[in-house]
Specification:
single chain; mainly alpha
């Protein structure tokens, strides 16, 4: 059935977002391994705040995808957040450094592209 792959993709991205967000909240220094002991408190707090955002977006998306037909608004908002992450990373790449830029883009580019693909595919089912 057309769109079922899009539903699976959207669910997998949302579940991954919840897991990654929970890791950001619960173990931010693990993600900031490099000199984690000396990482300033504001950087740890920001990563936790980012994690809360991802948990909320992922959980909202998973909930919305239970509807029949699936509600794509949360998928679109999540893809927009990933797209904003890409734009922000590109604009502030010097602050991120090469490693941070590559890590951010490695997560955000596929999530945004597949998210938008899922939105289009799921909306075509209506």
């Amino acid at each position: 059935m057309p769109g079922m792959d899009d539903l699976l993709i959207a669910r997998l991205i949302a579940a991954g977002r919840v897991l990654f967000g929970a890791l950001c909240v619960g173990a931010p220094k693990l993600l900031l391994r490099r000199d984690a002991a000396s990482t300033p408190g504001p950087a740890v707090w920001m990563l936790r705040a980012f994690g809360v955002r991802d948990v909320a977006l992922g959980a909202g998306t998973l909930s919305a995808l239970r509807d029949d037909p699936p509600d794509t608004r949360w998928v679109a908002v999540s893809a927009a957040a990933d797209s904003a992450d890409i734009a922000t990373a590109a604009a502030f790449r010097d602050e991120l450094g090469l490693g941070g830029l590559v890590a951010t883009l490695a997560l955000a580019v596929p999530a945004a592209a597949l998210g938008w693909k899922s939105v289009a595919g799921l909306r075509s089912l209506r």
